[in-house]
Amino acid sequence: MGHHKTTNSRPQLCDWQFKKSVLRALYGVHGDKPLVAVVLSGNGVTGNAVDLCYDSLRKWRDGSRPTGVPSTQFWEALRSDFSLSVGPTRLWTCSILEFVELLKGDPNISAAVDELIHNSPVTLDGDTRTALENRFTPKPATTLLNDYQVRGYLRMNVSGPQTGVKQGHVQHAQFYMQPEAAHAWVALVDSQNYHMYLDCLLSLKELAQSNLFADALRGDSYNAAVTLGGGGSPEKDWILATSLAAGRNSAEAVDYVINDISPFMIDLSATALIGRLHKGNLADRIQLRLDWCDFLWLDYHWTRDPTWKSVVWAILGGTIGNVEDERQFFRSIRHPSKVGDLLIVGMDTIGDETLESFEKRMETQYVCKELDALLRTSVPDPNPDCNSAPKSVAVEVVGGPNNPHSQVSGSWSVVFKREHESGVNPTILATSTRYILDDFVSFARSFGWECLGSFSAQGESTFRQLLLRRAE
Ligand SMILES: C[S@@+](CC[C@H](N)C(=O)[O-])C[C@H]1O[C@@H](n2cnc3c(N)ncnc32)[C@H](O)[C@@H]1O
Predict the structure, then answer these.
(1) Which atom of ligand 1 has the smallest separation from the CA of 319?
(2) Which of 43, 154, 324, 370 could cysteine-pair with 188, CB 3.0–4.6 Å?
(3) What is the pLDDT of residues 7-17, one digit of tens each?
(4) Under CATH, what is the fold of the domain 144-154+179-350+446-470?
């Protein structure tokens, strides 16, 4: 296997950035140092310990565990301030969701935490802020777009690729956070060289025209579809939205929601789709909604529209393979989905191939100048060497039980890494996982989703479109 990292089984600090925002607001301080000072001094710790704790706190941002006496005192102090019965380790290892629930157990601050969660502004890092400000300065691409408000559901931190580069690993949710990245994505799709996109489109057509899908929709209760990470693929939206509307007996409208964390990818789809819906006289029948939202936190900040009976969810284009902890995806949709809802997952699979032939397939699949351009544009090199060629991107395959890029057994992940001069670790620009079909089906079942069937583009494609139904 090309490269194999072992995962660290020691407990990790979880969601520090989010926890920090909550704590700062609750203690009414703005910076990190004042936060450390107020927490520690309130519990009788002052002097050098405050500086030492602040020094280690700066490392927590990267997920480093709190070590040393002052750090332990900090988490102990929180425990005491909020009268928590759990131990300090639980406080730093738990997710932000659990952390908030724990804090809400303190009756004195329960209301404050609620208010904070619902009103806290989105915090953005530098590059994302500029890009988002550009997006929301009114200059829509079409006048029609004026009628469609992008609804923001973000009550948490949003960051862009610069933050990922600093951490040595650009998350997929950071990758398309610049308008240029969205344009480079369009160029890649238009080049027809990106097989994942084409195969996903063709297999979605197969699914949409199948009896299996028609039967699954029978009963007239499906009046909404939500596509997650759905920006950048208006042809797929068209297929999904029109087949949903056609499957209804009544002339009643359906809601079609494009969810994406990148407003630029949403814009792309909206501009292409709105005109088409109006031209086809379908704008009333298919009501488009644009949701700027993180699909990994739906349970936390997104609510299901009460008028929806049953929903068709979709995550297409192999986007599930960019999610490094697929459990988080399934947990996230658990809350807003209901028994009977459908879920379409478009993903590439591992065919009847050896590791060697798989590696060869990946190498060939990714030789494409438009993809190079997308990687370069989305994640600009912060230290380019003007006198030499751009740094090369290595494509490696990682698998095995400790694969840090997937939680589904048997999967193989492709990792794109930008090489640096010797001595500096390469930056991970993106990861993309391929699954063994049966293993993915069992994984989905363990979260309550039963597989009704799968579809592929004709020919030799390994890409599959899975149709699942929530059974429990
Ligand atoms: C490869 S792109 C486009 C996928 C496209 N819908 C398709 O079917 O080909 C993946 C999309 O997922 C979005 N995305 C990534 N992580 C996300 C997250 N956590 N929440 C919402 N959208 C996310 C990206 O912004 C991007 O638009």
Answers:
(1) 10
(2) 370
(3) 445 777 887 87
(4) Rossmann fold (3.40.50)
Residue 38 CA to ligand 1 center (angstroms) comes to: 40
263-279 and 179-190 helices, crossing angle to 10°? 50
Question: pLDDT tens digit string along 150-190?
Answer: 666 544 457 788 888 888 999 999 999 888 899 999 999 99
366, two tokens = 């990714």
With a 6 Å cutoff on the Cβ, whether 318 touches ligand 1 is: no
Residues of the chain with CATH 3.40.50.150: 144-154+179-350+446-470
Place of tokens 């008028």: 307
160-174, 185-199, 280-294, 414-428: which range is least confident on average? 414-428
For residue 22, what are the CA distances in angstroms to 156, 263, 391, 437?
10, 25, 39, 40
Rg, the chain, Cα only:
23
Mutate to test the pocket of ligand 1, among 188, 262, 319, 345 (most ligand atoms within 8 A of CB): 319
Q: Which atom of ligand 1 lies nearest, measured to the CA of 236?
A: 8
